[in-house]
Hints:
The complex is a heterodimer of chains A (209) and B (278). Chain A is built from six helices and 14 strands. By secondary structure, chain A is of the alpha+beta class. Chain A has a four-stranded antiparallel β-sheet with strand order 2-14-8-10. The termini of chain A are far apart. Chain B has 278 residues and is mostly helical. Helix content of chain B is 67%, strand content 0%. Chain B has ten helices and no strands. Chain B has helices at residues 9-27, 31-48, 51-57, 71-113, 128-141, 163-178, 180-194, 201-212, 224-236, 249-277. Chain A binds chain B through residues 23, 25-27, 46-47, 83, 100, 102, 104, 137-139, 157, 182-186, and chain B through 213-218, 220, 255-256, 259-260, 262-263, 266-267, 269-271, 273.
Amino acid sequence: MIINAGQIARELKHPLNADDPLIITPSPDLEELKKSGSASIDLRLGCWFLACRASRTGLLDVYKSQDVIPSEAKLTKSYYVPFGDGFVLHPRAFVLGVTLEWIRLPTDRSAMVIGRSSWGRHGLIIATATGVHPGFTGCLTLELSNVGEIPIMIKPGTTICQIFIHKVEGGDPKFVDQSSFIGSRKPTLGAIKLDEIARLLANDDFNNQ
Amino acid sequence: MVYLLLNLLIHYSSLWLDMLGHSVWESERFAAKFEKQIENGVLKELKNSRWEEYELLNVGSKVSDLDSDDMFVRSTWLPAYTWALLQSEEIFCDFLGLYLFAESYLHAFSYLTSPSTSGQRSLGYPNITRRIHHLVYAATVMKISIPAGFKSDFAKEEEPTEPSQKLLVSIADTVSNLLATDLIKLVQDFANEKKLHRRNPDKVSQIQDEFRNMIVPTLEQQTLTDILNAGWNCSLDSDIWDNVSHDKLHEAKDQILQDLILKSMEVSEYHERTKKEQ
């Protein structure tokens, strides 16, 4: 069940559970939220960007041993764009951004982040819907891509995406998201982890037997 | 220089103010307030207490020569004046850092400089023992808590052994020592005039509680000093890090607190900028 923005505003002001609050910092304008009648909250673009160093990477092959895959620091370059400055996203460019807001979800809330249609129509796509699991704490990494024809200037502080918050039922507070994304204020590439079945299916030694 | 090690922000940021202190000292021309006092102090100390040692090093000198403008005579005691002036500037910087960053300045100071700098002390600084003595005295005047074991974190530094240098730095130490009270007052007057923020214990406590829960503070009005003091308190609170294995403790602390502190500063800037536009 998606929670209405008015209800979110009330939960931000008066957490349902003081030990497990919903937090968005800096806080949106709660009075505006109550009146909006919306089902989502707009989030702003943060100051950090992460771009791939294409010239250093011939192929991203996650099926190789993790020891062979270059580290995030080698694969990417980080950019800090202070308030007042901008980042120009050229056509077909892809960069990771981050929300300005630091978010904490209670253990009975999850969220989906999607782009804003006004930006999308101008070619700026905020990737696919990004799921945020209960208990998440930190800034959200955004996958920004310009699929339009002209470069787009984006500045920290701009409302760039929206978050829909859902109620999670039947969950156990003991089992919350403990992923490596917790606590980050910068965009992170993260590792693609293959499960055992995917590894078995991808193993070409089997074909040679 | 350590000031450039941004990735260890929690350890270093309080000491950035040391650099800020030098800029203030320069821009406010505070040195001019003390130059005559220091010169008189050096000459008085030489004449009244250290004349025998001076005479041994400068055979044939007369006490009355010290007051002359003869450049050769002046050069015999001028290093003491220069070092006393430089030491006074360093003491001012420590006091300004302490005034603004309170306990976090002492934690950062200890983290960076204890037990002492290796080798012989730098003559433009009070030796570490006197620096600590000044900091503890100023902290008492400014009602700032001194971290447990702070004084014992430090070891004595090597003093110069060359006779002339030994005498002159000892005079510089004596003269700059006498200015400590004046320098505290100078910092307090400057801070009051510029309406500089000091750390607010209630806000530090609130931010600390939020850091403990991995939350970037929700307060709209928080200052850098509140944030840094809360960060240091969390870093030193072993209960928070119970679940982290010992071998990963420093890395975890650095990573988590760095994220929380830097994000808090960003949020403070957001509030500051949006407040002005309202």
